[in-house]
Amino acid sequence: MTSQSTQIFSDLSLARRLERTEARANASFVEARARAFPEIGAEWIDVCGVYAMFDGSESPLTQTFGLGLFDPVSASDLGRIEKFFQDRGAPVIHEVSPLADPAIFPLLNERGYQPCEFTTALYRPIERGATFTELRNEKIQVRVIASDEVELWAQTSARGWSEFPELAEFMLMFGKVVAQRRDGLSFIAELDGKPIATGAMSIYNDVALLAGASTIPEGRKQGAQLALLDSRLRYATEHGCNIATMGALPGSASQRNAERQGFRIAYTRTKWELRGEMGDGVMGRWGEPAL
C-alpha cells in the first residue's frame, strides 16, 4: 500500500469537511426519497449550518448533522430545529462531533437530551496513482451502475442483509432510494458476471464518503469489498478528492477493517436524543445503514 504524502490532522477543519460531506449525502438521500415517495413528506432545512433532515418518523436518517460546528447555535435556534421534527411526529436527534462548540453541550443537557449512540468517523488521505488495497481478487470486476440498474443494485444490496428478515422490506426500499440520488454514485461488484456486492459513494468538494457496503451471503470472503474499496478510492482521486471518509461502530469489525486499509480515527460522534418534558424520543433504534 502506497503511503500518503499529504498530512491531514484531526482538527476542527477536518471535522467540518467530514460532517458537511455526510450531511450533504444524507440531504441528497432525503431529496431522492421526496421524489420517490412524496407521501412521506421528506425534507431538510439548514439552521446555522446544521442540516436537519426528516425522512419519516422511523427512519435512521431523521436527525441532524453539524450542530455547533459551523455557526453559534442559540436556544432559539435549537428550538426551531426541535419544532421541525416535533411538527412531523419524529424524535429529535443530533449527531454531534466532539470538536463542536463546547457551548452546545450544556445547552443539550439543559434541554433534556441524553446520549443514545456512538459512531467513529474515520478518514484517510488519498492521492491519484496510489495502491489502496494490498489484496484484490482479479476475477471480481467493479463498475458504476447504469441508470436502468437501480433495481439490480437495490436487490443485491438488500440480499446482503438477508440474515435480518425483519429489515428486508426497508433495505430494499432504502437501496432503491440510494441508487437514485442525483449526486450519489452506486458501485456493483461482479464475479463471473454475477452481482455479489454493492458499495456507494458521495463526493462533496474534495471529500469522498464511502458507504452502502453489502455482500450477498454466497459471495462473501472472496475480496468483493476490497475490490469495491479500491475502485471507489481510485474513482474519487480521479475526480479531485484528496480525502476519504466512512463511519463505523466504535471497536467494530468494520472499524478494524477500515484501519487495516489505512483509515485513521478522526473522532467519535455522539447521538443526543431529546427526552423528558421537551421530547419523547425512542431510544435504541438500530444502527443506521451508511449511505
Report on the structure:
It is a single chain. This protein has seven helices and eleven strands. With 291 residues, it is α+β, with helices and mostly antiparallel strands. Helix content is 30%, strand content 27%. Helix 4 runs antiparallel to helix 5 (168-178). A hairpin with a 2-residue loop joins strand 8 and strand 9 (207-215). The protein folds into two domains: 12-122 and 267-278, Aminopeptidase; 125-266, Aminopeptidase (3-Layer(aba) Sandwich). The longest helix has 25 residues, at 12-36. The chain has an eleven-stranded mixed sheet, with helices on both faces. The chain is globular, with a radius of gyration of 19 Å.
Record the SSE blueprint.
Blueprint: H1 12-36, E1 43-47, E2 50-54, E3 63-65, H2 75-86, E4 93-96, H3 104-110, E5 113-125, E6 140-144, H4 150-159, H5 168-178, E7 184-191, E8 194-204, E9 207-215, H6 224-238, E10 243-248, H7 253-260, E11 264-274
Parallel strand pairs: 3-4, 9-10
Antiparallel strand pairs: 1-2, 2-3, 4-11, 5-10, 5-11, 6-7, 7-8, 8-9
Helix pairs in contact: 4-5
Can you describe this structure in just a few lines?
By secondary structure, this protein is of the alpha+beta class. The chain is built from seven helices and eleven strands.
Report the CATH topology name of the largest domain: Aminopeptidase
Q: What spatial order of strands do you see in the largest sheet?
A: 1-2-3-4-11-5-10-9-8-7-6
Q: Cα distance, first to last residue?
A: 26 Å
| Low-pLDDT residue intervals, each spanning 5 or more residues | 280-291
Helix percentage: 25-40%
Find the count of extended strands (DSSP E, 2+ residues).
Answer: 11
The CATH architecture term of the largest domain is 3-Layer(aba) Sandwich
C-alpha Rg, in Å? 19 Å
Under CATH at level 1, the class of the largest domain stands as Alpha Beta
